[in-house]
Amino acid sequence: MNSKSSDRSKSTEKNAGISEIEKKIGYKFKNLDILLTALTHTALANETGKQSYDRLEFLGDSLLNFITAKHLYQIYADKNEGFMTKTRARVVSTKTLSIVIDKLELIKYLQTGNAARESILSSQKVKANLFESIAGAIYLDGGLAECEKYVLTNLRDYFIDDDIDDYKSLLLEHCAKNSLKIVYNNTEMNSMHTSQVIINEHLYATATSTSKSLADQIASKITVVGLGLLTK
């Protein structure tokens, strides 16, 4: 009786953990075995004979490169190959993926076994591998659209052009120095964000992108160039 009660308790804890993971990544798995494989580190696989996340990580890495390349092509119509290659490298870098896993608080769910667990869980490379293995798992279970949703939802703010970062600050500084009232009017429709730059009740620019911050920055760039504060 006590054994059955204990088993039910363990099952409930396991299901609760799976539900938390699915909530964090925004996808509910039809085949939980795929998710469990995505959460199995090589160290545990070597100890138990289970399949590790290595193959899913390989698949996820390729998917990330494709999805980010496609997205960059769509949002930066005026940029060349060199810019897109550099930006993609930053978006899918170990550092970026590690930061995302930390934000999602997913590393605690990685199954590693007892040996060197602390060092494994603190590794940026392992965290990046986990993000990629989950991407691969979602693709196999739910298809490309669901995988793309997972990737872009978590990485969209990293697609911002490094050079764009200063444009909003430059515009705000210009308006403050010249006693101009500036307002960013933001709207969202179908997961796309539109930003309008309004200065002294006059509309200067409108931009649409996958995140509010990127839309603000692009609209700011258009305004800054339009005001002659710098050349395009």
Protein described:
With 232 residues, the chain is mainly α. It folds into 2 domains: 2-158, Ribonuclease III domain (Ribonuclease iii, N-terminal Endonuclease Domain, Chain A); 162-226, Double Stranded RNA Binding Domain, CATH 3.30.160. It is 63% helix and 10% strand. It has 11 helices and 3 strands, in the order ααααααααααβββα. It has helices at 2-25, 32-38, 42-48, 54-75, 81-91, 94-104, 117-121, 124-142, 144-155, 165-177, 212-226, and strands at residues 182-189, 192-199, 202-209. Strands 1-2-3 form a 3-stranded antiparallel beta sheet, with helices on one face. The chain is elongated and about 65 Å long. Mean pLDDT is 86; it is low at 1-13.
Task: Please summarize what this structure is.
63% of the residues lie in helices and 10% in strands. By secondary structure, the chain is mainly alpha-helical.
Report the C-alpha radius of gyration, rounded. 22 Å
Count structural domains.
2
Total strand segments: 3
Q: Major sheet: size, sense and barrel closure?
A: 3 strands, antiparallel
CATH domain class of the largest domain: Mainly Alpha
Q: Please identify, by name, the CATH architecture of the largest domain.
A: Orthogonal Bundle
SSE arrangement, N to C: HHHHHHHHHHEEEH
Q: Indicate the percent of residues in helices.
A: 55-70%
CATH homologous superfamily of the largest domain, by name?
Answer: Ribonuclease III domain
| Contiguous runs where pLDDT drops below 50 for at least 5 residues | 1-13
The average pLDDT value, as a whole number, equals: 86
Strand content: 5-15%
Strand order, largest beta sheet: 1-2-3
Distance between the termini: 74 Å
